[in-house]
Design brief:
The chain is of the alpha/beta class. It is built from four helices and five strands, in the order αβαββββαα. The protein folds into two domains: about 100 residues, Dihydrodipicolinate Reductase, domain 2, CATH 3.30.360; about 35 residues, no CATH class. Strand 4 and strand 5 form a beta hairpin. The C terminus is likely disordered.
């Protein structure tokens, strides 16, 4: 959830600089079958939503209106995702490196604790918004 929030902020920043390119590099173990990963696609969606000049994502050669995703499958890497903004004057990279699979269980437990006693349909983004002080209590429950 935090990486998606940071991706949205980076996308909004890129929207102010027409020369800046956004991209994602991801690395997973050699047994992972899908490429790009669902996480990389989710991050691309967050970047794209905040930077309207992008109309999608792709693997491979550069296209001006697509967020480029580079996928590496090798070794025993659990998961690493880097989102980058590259402009003529600066490069900004935000990285998440999962060093142990327990990080995913920890996030699920935080979500379960947070949702206890709440009504409605929520996402991990709602948890992150609440953690950063955003007001989601005014949100109507699903189906209301």
């Amino acid at each position: 959830a935090l990486m998606r929030k940071l991706a949205a902020i980076m996308g909004a920043y890129a929207a102010t600089d027409q020369e800046a390119d956004l991209g994602i590099i991801e690395h997973h173990h050699k047994m992972k079958l899908d490429a790009p990963s669902g996480t990389a696609i989710t991050l691309a969606s967050a970047l794209q939503s905040a930077c309207p000049r992008y109309v999608g994502w792709k693997i491979g050669s550069y296209e001006k209106d697509k967020i480029n995703i580079a996928s590496l499958r090798s070794g025993f890497e659990i998961g690493r995702h880097d989102i980058s903004l590259d402009s003529p004057f600066e490069t900004l990279t935000i990285s998440h490196h999962a060093k142990d699979r327990r990080v995913f269980a920890s996030g699920a437990m935080r979500g379960a604790t947070w949702i206890w006693g709440r009504r409605g349909v929520f996402t991990m983004d709602d948890l992150a918004t609440d953690a950063f002080g955003g007001d989601i209590t005014a949100r109507k429950p699903a189906g209301a």
